[in-house]
Automatic annotation (TrEMBL):
Originating species: Sphingomonas limnosediminicola
Top EC group: hydrolase
EC number: 3.1.1.61
Name listed for the protein in its UniProt record: protein-glutamate methylesterase
Record NCBIfam families: PRK00742.1
Keyword vocabulary terms for this entry: Chemotaxis, Hydrolase, Phosphoprotein
Domain CheB-type methylesterase stretches: 149-342
Record domain Response regulatory: where: 1-117
Catalytic activity: [protein]-L-glutamate 5-O-methyl ester + H2O = L-glutamyl-[protein] + methanol + H(+)
Length: 346
């Protein structure tokens, strides 16, 4: 479904999408209200939603659109996805699965259609309605989970991509306000979004949240977010641990990438390192998780049912690196269970 008040935009997007035989446009709407009404009559896999529309704007109506979509993913396609970072990050926090700025001067260099189709394929099909209890997944089909240590942790690092902002909100909502360790976050977002993202994450997490800068000393119960143009890593500096921003190529091709972050916390903290891999497309985090586990650290992956795109968590699970596969709120409780005995964490 395409939801946009511009007839031209609806026509152009429809033409681009239907050029790929994997997709069919089953409904269009000019306002969020009309989209919500239509979703009572038609089932879709993905809703493309503009933010600037008459009546209830896309951002205001987003929770109702998500509810009416009954398992379909909502992707924001709007000029505000580039110009209005505040609104776009807010949309992701409210449950949008992904965002894409409309093509404009300098955007995509003629590759908008290719980028759009790639994102749609990554989002995939809507979850099927649950009519009866789903059969248990065969244990033999799932790689065995690793044992998770019970001793207190020293560092927490979280990696996420598509749908990650919503999952981060759920995670921090269930995490105690003090756990006594620093928290690192690598979320795939363009650089201009990072200050807004850090500010909003700090509010949700009830903690100070900063965009990481090279040379910063890390402190307990403070969140450090990778900037959009560098990887977030750690290294010892005397008696302190400091942030080092790096720019090297990674196997995933992501910038920032979860891999260097995970690898560095494993090298510095060993068995005291815990990584969390949340929803996202691709395999970013697998190589870093492997190096962290080799150093004695542990990794928890988000489960499929709560993920917008079960790519990154599944890759970690399939590689045999996960010690648990859980929704974000239960991941938070599992992390908290390893911090309760630390001073100041009650």
């Amino acid at each position: 479904m395409i939801v946009d008040d511009s007839t031209v935009a609806r026509a152009v997007l429809s033409r681009m999408i239907e050029a790929d035989p994997a997709f069919e446009i089953v409904a269009v709407a000019g306002t969020a209200e009309h989209a919500i009404e239509a979703l009572d009559q038609v089932r879709v896999d993905v809703v493309l939603l503009d933010l600037e529309m008459p009546g209830a704007g896309g951002l205001e109506a987003l929770p109702k659109v998500i509810a009416a979509a009954a398992g379909a993913k909502v992707m924001i396609v709007s000029s505000l996805a580039e110009e209005g970072a505040e609104q776009t990050v807010a949309a992701l926090a409210k449950g949008a699965a992904d965002t894409l700025p409309k093509p404009g001067k300098g955007n995509f260099y003629g590759r908008f259609s290719e980028v759009l189709i790639g994102k749609l394929k990554a989002l995939g099909h809507a979850a099927a309605p649950i009519l009866e209890p789903a059969p248990q997944r065969s244990l033999s089909a799932q790689p065995p989970l690793r044992a998770m240590p019970s001793d207190p942790i020293d560092i927490l690092a979280i990696g996420a991509s598509t749908g990650g902002i919503h999952s981060l909100g759920a995670f921090f909502h269930s995490l105690p306000k003090k756990i006594g360790v620093p928290i690192l976050v690598t979320q795939h977002l363009p650089g201009p979004f990072m200050p807004v993202f850090a500010r909003q994450l700090g509010v949700v997490a009830h903690r100070e949240c900063l965009v990481a800068q090279d040379g910063m000393q890390i402190r307990a119960d403070r969140i450090y977010v990778a900037p959009g143009d560098a990887h977030l890593t750690l290294e010892p500096a005397g008696k302190s641990i400091v942030i080092r921003l790096t720019h090297g190529r990674t196997a995933s091709g992501c910038m920032p990438s979860v891999d260097p972050m995970f690898a560095s916390i494993g090298a510095v903290y060993g068995s005291g390192a815990v990584g969390v891999i949340l929803t996202g497309m691709g395999r970013d985090g697998v190589e870093g998780a492997a190096r962290m586990v080799a150093c004695g650290g542990s990794v928890i992956a988000q489960d499929e049912a709560s993920s917008a795109v079960w790519g990154m968590p599944k890759a970690v699970l399939d590689a045999g690196l996960a010690c648990a596969v859980l929704p974000p709120d239960k991941i938070a409780r599992r992390v908290a269970s390893r911090t309760e005995e630390q001073p100041g964490c009650k």
